[in-house]
């Protein structure tokens, strides 16, 4: 039994990652490949030729089709054979490769893991700030050598910022502010309100003015593996509250963890913001800065995964600060048990 949910949409790649040249990516334990057809829509199929299993991502594009680089079997974007290796041989259309439901939305290319006839695009998580008017969104990608749930734990526990990200977004006040955790259906929300404090370096630069600020962090876990974090600062006295906070500078950190294996995942990260949205230079600089912050997380989590493997007789402990991650794991586990009891397949 795997550690991830099926019958779900996962991010396969950024819109700019997938082009006419096939992109190979293992998702939920399955080798897949993706490429853009001539109309720029995305095709997704298993990355294994049905003949000798050579990765099709090594193949040659011909129109919307792909030809295996080993013996020349040609497959259409629907995965069905179009030409056999021997040109005089009749095409056997029973030869085919598995294809996947793919949707492009919110700057991401999504792939459905599970029964293809259940692939409902309305189930794609509502990453609204990534497409909303008055916001700008960009981000990047890391391959991370740890269980995807460790990254969810990390993102639902921002107390680590004080120590891991001390030079950018961390500060002692994070440890002093009370936490509020709530569960609504299959979502977990963890919030922290920090009134009348000094802004950390990044937020001071974003606000562009001196003085004390009110700061907020609101982490939301969304199935199957997304965390959205509403963050920002507003000048003291501007009227911002934990419920309504558009008076200063605000961002929504978007994180999507797509399982690769039991001990590795694809980490798609970014931030949508409602300030300086016309400043392309700032967007590029901030993306580089955010990449540095998340690289610090990656280093930490890969070391944690190695320690988990090296200490099989030990289990992770959970303190008060871990409530958000614990609740998220409980929802994943409960959903997996329900799926298992219905006899749905656990891997794609």
UniProtKB/TrEMBL annotation:
Keyword annotations from UniProtKB, A to Z: 2Fe-2S, Dioxygenase, Iron, Iron-sulfur, Metal-binding, Oxidoreductase
Molecular function via GO: dioxygenase activity
The UniProt record lists the keyword Flavoprotein: no
Matching Pfam families: Rieske, VanA_C
Stretches assigned to the Rieske domain: 9-111
Keyword Metal-binding: yes
Alphabetical list of InterPro entries matching this protein: Cholesterol_7-desaturase (IPR050584), Rieske_2Fe-2S (IPR017941), Rieske_2Fe-2S_sf (IPR036922), VanA_C_cat (IPR044043)
Protein name per UniProt: Aromatic ring-hydroxylating dioxygenase subunit alpha
Protein species of origin: Novosphingobium album
């Amino acid at each position: 039994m795997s550690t991830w949910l099926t019958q779900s949409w996962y991010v396969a790649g950024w819109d700019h990652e997938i082009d006419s040249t096939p992109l190979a990516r293992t998702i939920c334990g399955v080798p897949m490949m993706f490429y853009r057809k001539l109309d720029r829509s995305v095709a997704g199929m298993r990355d294994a030729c049905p003949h000798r299993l050579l990765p099709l991502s090594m193949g040659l594009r011909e129109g919307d089709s792909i030809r295996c680089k080993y013996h020349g079997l040609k497959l259409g974007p629907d995965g069905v054979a179009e030409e056999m290796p021997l040109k005089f041989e009749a095409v056997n259309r029973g030869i085919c490769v598995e294809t996947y439901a793919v949707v492009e939305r919110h700057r991401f290319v999504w792939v459905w893991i599970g029964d293809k006839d259940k692939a409902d695009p309305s189930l794609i998580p509502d990453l609204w700030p990534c497409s909303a008017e008055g916001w700008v969104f960009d981000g990047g990608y890391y391959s991370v050598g740890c269980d995807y749930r460790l990254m969810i734990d990390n993102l639902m526990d921002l107390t680590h910022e004080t120590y891991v990200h001390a030079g950018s977004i961390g500060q002692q006040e994070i440890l002093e502010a009370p936490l509020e955790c709530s569960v609504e259906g299959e979502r977990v929300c963890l919030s922290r309100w920090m009134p009348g404090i000094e802004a950390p370096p990044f937020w001071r630069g974003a606000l562009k003015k001196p003085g004390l600020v009110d700061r907020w962090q609101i982490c939301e876990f969304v199935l199957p593996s997304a965390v959205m974090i509403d963050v920002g600062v507003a000048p003291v006295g501007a009227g911002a509250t934990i419920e309504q906070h558009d008076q200063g500078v605000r961002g929504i950190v978007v994180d999507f963890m797509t399982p690769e294996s039991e001990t590795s995942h694809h980490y798609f990260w970014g931030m949508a913001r409602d300030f300086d949205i016309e400043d392309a230079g700032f967007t590029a600089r901030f993306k580089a800065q955010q990449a540095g912050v998340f690289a610090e997380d990656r280093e930490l989590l890969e070391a944690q995964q190695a320690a988990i493997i090296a200490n099989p007789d030990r289990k992770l402990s959970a303190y008060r600060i871990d409530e958000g991650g614990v609740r998220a794991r409980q929802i994943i586990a409960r959903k997996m048990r329900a799926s298992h009891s219905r006899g749905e397949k656990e891997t794609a």
